[in-house]
Specification:
Spore Coat Polysaccharide Biosynthesis Protein SpsA, Chain A, 9-stranded mixed β-sheet, 11 helices, 9 strands, 37% helix
Amino acid sequence: MEGNKVKITIAIPAHNAEKTLAFSILSAKAQEYPHKEILVLDDGSTDRTKAIAEAHKVSVISNETNKGIGYSLLRLMNEAKGKYIVYLCADDLFTDNLVVNDIVSQFDLGDPAVGIIGRYYYEFSETPDNVVGLFRDQNILTSSVNPSGMAFRRIDGLKHTNAVFVEMPFLVRQYLGHWRWTMFQYDTIAVRIHPGGNTGTKKEYYKGSAIENWHDIIGITVPYYLQFIQLRNRSTYRMLIREIRSTIRIHPKCLKDVRFWFCVLTALIVPGFLLRPLSAMYREKNHYTKDDVIRREP
């Protein structure tokens, strides 16, 4: 599609996503809005990610080496042809074929001071009907930890960070000085959970302190205690101790919170070979059904 006819870009950052990328591209292609660009950024993949994107005849750009999610999000913003941009991670799906229509309508016909659109989303395992998590966060910063479904008026002059867990919130923070935001009150995105595939399940992703990044870079405190268990499962014991200490320093009230002590003691005491299956069982225990998903109203 010619650049001057593109109204919105569906931007897909992808790194070693050969197992799921095709599904995400097909989900993007199924969006009924006609004036769209589908732009895949291959972030230095060592598998067939780029070949799969090219086979589906979408626009493809590449980083020669793995530059990280923060760099890739900003590059997609800068190279998008669309006036608007919506992100879709390479293992996620749109829940409805009219999501992009809703985004364009909101930007075109809604408050012109709104530059960001947030959304609800849910997590699934194996198939979209196997719902394992619901996310209804009303805070645009913390909701944007997951880039999928976040939509923006495309602007230039932004900066990026690859600091863990705040890559997209860092972009949102820059917007909030100039734009208002709104949020769709339905699940626009289905997030695929697959150990070893999601960014947050990869050991190499944990290169810094999440709570320090929220505090120092974004300017808010987000004491997420389950992070201790994730770090024990996915990173190093040294990083776990650092995160516990940082949480106490930044959020001292945690010492009076039973949830803090439960997660700390679980992460420190339970052996890894037991903690990983227990974590999986915990996720399955919090099982939802497809009826819990908030669908788009006709």
